[in-house]
Amino acid sequence: MNVYKSGNELLSQIERTKLTDQALSLWALGQEGFLVIWGEHTILFDPYLSDWVFESSGPPWSRAFAPPLAPSQCGFVDYVVCSHHHEDHMDKQTLQAIGQSQATKFIVPKAHLELMKEWGFCDEQLIGISHGQSLELAEGLKLEAHAAKHEQFETDEAGEHKFLGFVASFGDIQLYHAGDTVGFPELVEWLRPKLIDIAMLPINGRDFVRNSAGIVGNCNYREAVEIAVQIQADLLIPMHYGLFPHNDENPAYFVDYVYQNYRAQKFHMFAPGERFIYMK
Predict the structure, then answer these.
(1) Where are the alpha helices (DSSP H) in the chain?
(2) CA separation (Å) from 202 to 3, 103, 156, 187, 195?
(3) What is the pLDDT along the chain (280 residues), one digit of tens a residue?
(4) Measured between alpha carbons, how far is residue 88 from residues 30, 51, 160, 275, 280 in Å?
(5) Ramachandran bin of 120, using left for φ above 0, alpha for ψ from -120 to 50, beta for the remaining angles
(6) Distance between CA atoms of residues 49 and 52, nearest Å
(7) Structural domains in the chain?
(8) Strand, helix or coil at 184?
(9) Distances (CA, A) of 120 to 85, 96, 184, 230
(10) pTM of this prediction exceeds 0.85
């Protein structure tokens, strides 16, 4: 039995959660999907709230758990931020349903703007972002993009990176959502000066078996922990595990690695639909 909220019960909790500007509320929606609320501002990162991967590709891409929210319940979101065009991060069905709300803006790598237009989004709904670019979304709310290696840098003909991670500034709170990436030295160099408070990093890893099946890899749990430690993140949140059993990692290995090597490193593991409140 799921002890965490979902559906209308979860939506009610989201609506009732009111915090000061010195705190963030976060909800895990599965894979790399996170809802973040700061004051009156709402950002939804990489929402995968449908079963589009299975519908497109078939087995073994079955979800291990149902989406905590339906896409139609996310019309209140100010910004949807997508890190790259893989179906579990830039989910056509989820985005099109949320896009029925004319108040929601969609921030995607510039390399994918034309695809979003093919999916029916208009220019007024879309904001493209490039590696190294910073957007001022509202007073105190900023978003900065950094290239990601999934498993290598990829660009389009215009030189726009197809895979991005994001540093979101919520007042004095700095949150890094890595998207899909492996570890690489430049990433640490880019992030260390940002004084990251919350680092969200994938842990499902990579191997030749998955590569041979066309599954592109990510940080493993060791890399995720080492990146967080090197950038001196206050809180580490592992992500990209638990949804697809054939492309997964046991998060107990992550916990053990932190315990054995960096006992002072704070971390939090989410259950689907769980709320977490961070105060600096």
Answers:
(1) 7-16, 52-57, 92-98, 113-118, 185-191, 208-212, 221-230, 251-261
(2) 24, 30, 24, 14, 19
(3) 345 789 999 999 999 999 999 999 999 999 999 999 999 999 999 999 999 999 999 999 999 999 999 999 999 999 999 999 999 999 999 999 999 988 999 999 999 999 999 999 999 999 999 999 999 999 999 999 999 999 999 999 999 999 999 999 999 999 999 999 999 999 999 999 999 999 999 999 898 888 888 878 899 999 999 999 999 999 999 999 999 999 899 999 999 999 999 999 999 999 999 999 999 8
(4) 10, 9, 21, 21, 31
(5) left
(6) 9
(7) 7-279 (3.60.15.10)
(8) coil
(9) 16, 8, 36, 42
(10) yes
Residues in the chain, overall count: 280
Residue with tokens 């093919």: 118
Q: How far is CA 8 from CA 3, 68, 102, 151, 273, in A?
A: 14, 9, 22, 38, 12
For the record, the structure tokens of 171 come out as: 């007042």
Amino acid letter at 158? Answer: A
Q: How far apart are CA 106 and CA 82, in angstroms?
A: 8
Q: Could you give the CA distance from residue 106 to residue 60 in angstroms, rounded to a whole number?
A: 30
**AA identity, residue 12:** S
